[in-house]
Write a structure and sequence with these properties.
413 residues; mainly alpha; Growth Hormone, Chain: A
Length: 413
């Protein structure tokens, strides 16, 4: 029976990795052109900020119920429903002209994204043994970033390609966005082949779920996500606009720059587990994210495009390379029947911070400029990095196994 369950888990991870790679490819292309698509539609920056905040507002409403639902119905249905919602919403963004239709599409994407990623961490945790889990989280993250590298490389040529061969939608960026909808639909197909791993249940998993999900440890683990989410939303979604306007980089160069950032991040992610063996997971998170803050400040202060681009690549790699370790740490602190609910809390606090930051960013950019937003992001990142180290580093113990065979193929965020 254990051999059969392990076989199912291995197959599940492989199928999930395929879906994750397609989703990463789609997200990279979408993120590259979404804000420029809005500007081409003639929307003001304030409205652009609202649209960037909208998915987070939706997450605040569905985060905890979605986590409870995932613990009740299983991870596979949540992944499938989330993937379909993202695909349908992306069609709305690409074809919509009025703010109402674009807003509906963005909202559907936000809801689907949250359903998908609330189930993501519990799914990985339940499809790997404790000795493999750290590598599995890191490898899954690497898959996302490598897919992002490919997506941003492909995405850099898509506007010109669609403009020349088959113009679609109201802007030159609508074609690439609709292409990502196709990728999202394709990503659902491998999820259909996943077989749910049976989970041990003690009592009624739905009883008292809000109280359990919001108890002390979950809230303390989630607090850094609020700070990091707010900091990220102030400036990170607008980096393409920042480089486009401050350094006059064209679309192709922007695509290459973002692709390099994803490639280096994917590579750096593989080094996080070995570092965690030496100093612990939480210390690894603090070290890498702390170093990234310095490069973020440098990116804001330099007038040289080449230095800013280098700082962006290094900042992205350092900031994200150890993030899967923190998620793994959080999942191990709670029972299996509460993992999706706690994942919902972690996601909810990130989205709450993102909603606040994104809503403010568009208006603050008009007053102070994007460079000031980068510095504000650095301050919030610093606080969000220091807190988990002070709160959890002393309690973190991890054993990272290096089996002779690679972990059931790769999985990452």
């Amino acid at each position: 029976m254990r051999t059969l369950q392990r076989s199912h888990s291995t197959r599940n991870v492989r199928l999930f990795l395929i879906a994750l790679a397609l989703h990463g490819l789609s997200s990279a292309i979408y993120g590259l052109w979404f804000n420029l698509h809005l500007l081409d539609l003639g929307y003001p920056r304030g409205l652009m900020g609202v649209f960037n905040a909208l998915p987070s507002a939706i997450a605040l409403g569905i985060g905890l119920p979605a986590g409870w639902w995932a613990d009740r119905i299983g991870r596979r249905p949540m992944l499938i429903i989330g993937g379909l919602m993202m695909a349908i919403g992306t069609v709305g963004v690409g074809l919509g002209i009025s703010p109402v239709w674009v807003g509906l599409g963005v909202g559907l994407i936000g809801a689907g994204y949250n359903l998908f990623f609330i189930a993501y961490a519990p799914f990985l945790t339940e499809n790997a043994s404790g000795s493999e889990r750290t590598r599995l989280f890191a490898l899954s993250s690497a898959v996302l970033f490598w897919a992002g590298f490919l997506g941003e490389g492909i995405g850099s040529v898509l506007p010109d390609l669609f403009r020349t061969l088959a113009p679609l939608g109201p802007t030159i960026y609508a074609g690439p966005i609709l292409f990502t909808a196709l990728l999202d639909f394709l990503a659902v197909l491998p999820l259909l082949g996943i077989r749910e791993v049976p989970r041990m249940s003690h009592g009624n998993p739905t009883a008292g779920w809000p109280k359990r999900a919001l108890r002390g440890p979950a809230v303390r683990m989630a607090f850094p996500n609020f700070l990091l989410g707010m900091g990220a939303a102030l400036s990170i979604p607008f980096l393409n606009v920042y480089f486009h306007e401050r350094y006059q980089l064209d679309d192709s160069t922007l695509g290459v720059l973002f692709a390099l950032t994803s490639a280096f991040t994917g590579l750096a992610t593989l080094f996080a587990p070995p570092i965690a063996r030496w100093i612990g997971r939480i210390a690894t998170v603090a070290l890498t994210q702390g170093l990234s803050v310095g490069f973020l400040i440098g990116m804001a202060l330099t007038d040289q495009a080449a230095l800013a681009a280098l700082a962006m690549v290094l900042r992205g790699a350092l900031m994200n390379m150890a993030s899967p370790l923190y998620m793994e740490f959080c999942m191990e602190q709670v029972p299996a029947t509460e993992r999706a609910a706690v994942s919902g809390v972690l996601n909810l606090t990130w989205e709450a911070g993102w909603m606040v930051g994104a809503a403010l960013s568009g208006f603050l950019q008009q007053q102070y400029g994007l460079a000031s937003m980068l510095l504000a992001t650095a301050v919030l990142y610093g606080a969000g990095t220091a807190y988990p180290y002070l709160a959890f580093a002393a309690h973190d113990r991890v054993e990272v196994a290096y089996p002779q065979r690679a972990v059931r193929r790769q999985v990452s965020c």
